[in-house]
Fold each of these.
Amino acid sequence: MNQKRKPLELYVHIPFCIRKCAYCDFVSGPGTKAMQKAYEAALTAEIDAAEEASECEVSTVFFGGGTPSVVGAGMLACIMEKLRKKYVFSKNAEITLEANPGTLDEEKLNGYRKSGFNRISIGCQSVHDDELKRLGRIHTFAEFQESFALARAAGFTNINVDLMSGLPGQSKAKWEESLRTIAKLSPEHISAYSLIVEPGTLFAEQNLDLPDEETEREMYAETEKILAEYGFSRYEISNYAKPDYTCRHNIGYWNRTDYLGFGPSAASLFENRRWTNTADVAAYVKACGAPEKIREEEETLSMQDAMEEFMFLGLRMTGGISMAEFEKQFGKEIHAVYGEVLRKYEGMKLLQEHGGYLSLTRDGISVSNVILADFLL
Ligand code: SF4
């Protein structure tokens, strides 16, 4: 009998970048060829030692970073081959590569396609060179345009472009110009995040001329309106897609599909266990894949943990969460657990129930951080 396998998502972290952007707090930095080789060996060893997941089928793979396109296409091909040997892949698996302008060329892009990558996510951030410079990006807008055209020519029919609002000195007009210029290029997906100044970054040490809260709110409201003009629908707080091009990997994450993450700082959720790998790249490489040496914060989730995650991850999506699914997973009716908080936000018209689903309203999305935090029991 052909039993249906459970979906499994894979994440592979490539921690190398040409240089550090001023706002970046990801585990990333420049790496020599020798470091990349040692890293590939450690990654391969980690995959070898990982859970077999023999009852699962890989539905999505995401290579993030860092800048995965900084390393040769050959290294990514070897890792993909390793993953394919270890796991059963679904025929239509979504396989995404994060890439940055200034690191892409025709040969690499053709190599990615051959290895099975069918989605590419390109970091643009802004169409204004002065803003790109301020962010410490390595590329100009013209270089982004060139990378975008090369990706299309290589056969990528599913492209995401990342943009950032709330930048130092950014006016509403400049943000809108970034949105419209990218939307006109017609990628299938746009991620539009607002800048968060994280501790430990170059930006955190500077006096930044950031847009005020009201301007930020207006920028956010404009984003949905402008992108809708070009056929993009918002399906998550910061993500917009053309019909049928939502990012399946991210949706799986928000729906708490099992996932295994490889590389430093990569997180995993598997059979109700969560863990995060060490963020120390040198320690990661030295441990050479031994799970007991690289995994930190390993925990088995209680029912309460799982319920909280179900709520604050699921409510990020504009479609919201299925109340029947909540009951199916936890054996409790959602109002019996969250009645008070639901009444409070429904009364404020920040949450709504519709056809068995519960979702944030448009006003609720703009204050989502506060609401989602209220679902911690
Ligand atoms: S390219 Fe991305 S990961 Fe690399 S330094 Fe810049 S923001 Fe960080």
Note: Residues 17, 20-21, 24, 26, 28, 65-67, 100, 123 surround iron/sulfur cluster (CB under 6 Å).
Amino acid sequence: MPRLDQRLKLVARQIRARCHADIGSDHGHLLKALLAAGRIERGIAIENKRQPWANSQATLRGLPADVRFGEGLQPLRPGEADSASICGMGGRSIERILGEAPERIPERLVLQPNKHAEQLRRWAFAAGYHLQEELRTAGRRRFDVLVFVRGDGHPDPVYDSLDREAALVFGPWHLRRWETWFVQQLQQQQRYLATLGGRDAVAGQRLAILDRLLAAREKHPQKNFAQTPPRRYFEK
Ligand SMILES: C[S@@+](CC[C@H](N)C(=O)[O-])C[C@H]1O[C@@H](n2cnc3c(N)ncnc32)[C@H](O)[C@@H]1O
């Protein structure tokens, strides 16, 4: 049985589906582990490079899984999978894959960008997908795992009553939970940007958001955002 690293373990824990597609399956380990754990009934591995495609085939041989060669979501028929994952790529590549085949995106998505998670939050907000959960792995290199579900036509309620721009940049669930590691990370970024010579407009904007967030927190340290979840989110 393939042993998943912490990053893929966290991804796997967010997946439970009848049919799950893993785009950029590489070695095929994620699908094999999901099948072995009974978290999915059927898997579809998609690869656009020969060697990883062959590796996925070898890993998944004899299991209820298809291994398809092709670009992103193109080898998937609309409605065929009820969930998909795209992991281990940059947020911009993931956004491109989603943008190229919007009609093939399943109801539920588990995305693990190596960077630019903000890009995916912005994509989802515009595309009508709701951020159901966002997590970060522990350890020296932290990876984001974002879980999206197709929305009901209303704006994503997780952003209700939050500073929208700050939430898109740093994550609405992280802002609501305001955990120690998250605050420390914001403070670290604030210190870094404040001392950065020749800040460009993006860095300047980010610093302004950090100043705003951390000042508000200092003013109301007792406010626990986790106790004020967006109501509509839980009514569904
Ligand atoms: C860095 S690896 C990550 C593998 C695995 N998903 C993980 O997280 O460990 C990225 C994999 O995605 C594949 N890939 C990249 N772009 C792709 C695309 N547009 N369509 C299908 N596969 C793609 C690459 O060939 C590579 O095997």
Note: The chain has a mean pLDDT of 93.
